[in-house]
Design goal:
Order of helices and strands: HEEEHEEEHHHHEEEEHHHHH
Largest sheet: 5 strands, antiparallel
Strand content: 5-15%
Helix content: 25-40%
Radius of gyration: 20 Å
Number of helices: 11
CATH architecture of the largest domain: Alpha-Beta Complex
CATH topology of the largest domain: Aminoglycoside 3'-phosphotransferase, Chain: A, domain 2
Number of domains: 2
CATH class of the largest domain: Alpha Beta
Number of strands: 10
Shape: globular
Strand order of the largest sheet: 1-2-3-5-4
């Protein structure tokens, strides 16, 4: 029925890769239908309908919203129809060469997105405000893990010292900007041999991966822009921050001129804090595509990153 409303016959409607919150269907070659799995996920779809036009107006490459229908005439929940962009998600290309190029492009896109502020666009339906993270929270988390036997006393002292060293580099407060909230491989659409922007596909290097779109805005919020880098594997962060600075994102000059490396410290604090928090809830979630679903993934990701001779200034933050 929904396909017919968009001129697509039933035989051209077929399921495609879906997420936790929504079922997804291809409506012919040009459209994608997303329907919340349950009522609990409707609020996220409402939020996406408010955020996507704002993100596109800021110049972010994300599929255009064609229809948001909350009449519940065709389904028992609201649904969304989006334009389909070429490519596959980065998570489907496990270990693909050229991923760093994609992350650099993503950084430039985020620099555009993070220029959007509440003062500039006003209130957006369903978009929450995340307040400044509690500077003492990592220490309390370490204390809880020590109490519960998840850490030994020496490891707890070492971790507290690491958080203290990071805190010395981090500003007391951060601006609130619009963040996507789930910049992870499964939400980055890519294709090989594409250019880095509209009309630049011709002549691109064969096999090179390029970003074609950022999808799934259900976790969007007003937040510290550094939190945007917390759901990307840490090995992709140097390239993403390079792209962010190239795009003149907030604090773009810090990496080149400010030896405190506040941006790297802010991002690393999120990764380390969230990795330790996962130890409090170590139940595996088989079948999830998100790279952080396995309980040890974040900790192993940090270990892998620092064991692989990361570029400056990252060794100085360890």
């Amino acid at each position: 029925m929904i396909g017919a409303r968009h001129g697509v016959p039933a035989e051209k409607v077929r399921p495609t890769a879906s997420g936790v919150a929504n079922r997804a269907y291809l409506l012919g070659p040009d459209l994608v239908l997303r329907i919340p799995r349950t009522e609990a996920f409707v609020a996220d779809l409402v939020k996406e309908a408010a955020v996507i036009p704002v993100a596109r107006a800021a110049g972010v490459r994300t599929p255009a919203l064609v229809t948001f229908d909350d009449s519940r005439t065709d389904a028992d929940v609201p649904y969304m129809v989006l334009e389909r962009v070429p490519g596959v998600d980065l998570a489907a290309l496990d270990g693909a060469a050229g991923a760093e190029d994609v992350f650099r492009e993503v950084g430039r896109e985020l620099a555009r997105l993070h220029r959007v502020t509440p003062a500039g666009v006003g209130e957006l339906t369903g978009v929450p405000v995340e307040y400044d993270p509690d500077a003492a929270a990592p220490h309390r988390l370490v204390d809880v893990l020590l109490r519960d036997g998840m850490l030994d006393a020496e490891a707890a002292r070492w971790l507290r010292g690491w958080f203290d060293r990071l805190a010395e580099r981090i500003p007391a407060s951060s601006p609130r900007v619009l963040v996507h909230g789930d910049i992870a491989p499964q939400n980055l659409l890519v294709r090989p041999g594409a250019g880095t922007g509209p009309g630049e596909g011709a002549g691109a290097a064969p096999g090179r991966l390029a970003l074609t779109g950022i999808v799934d805005w259900g976790d969007a919020m007003w937040a510290d822009p550094a939190v945007e880098f917390a759901k990307t594997p840490l090995w992709g962060i140097p390239a993403m921050l390079d792209g962010y600075r190239e795009g003149a994102g907030g604090g773009a000059g810090e990496g080149a001129h400010d030896r405190s490396y506040a941006w790297e410290a802010r991002v690393l604090r999120y990764h380390l804090t969230w990795a330790l928090a996962r130890l409090r809830h170590p139940t595996p979630v088989p079948g999830e595509r998100h790279w952080t679903a396995p309980p040890a993934s974040r900790l192993l990701g940090i270990l892998r990153f620092f064991a692989s001779s990361p570029p400056e200034p990252w060794p100085a933050l360890a």
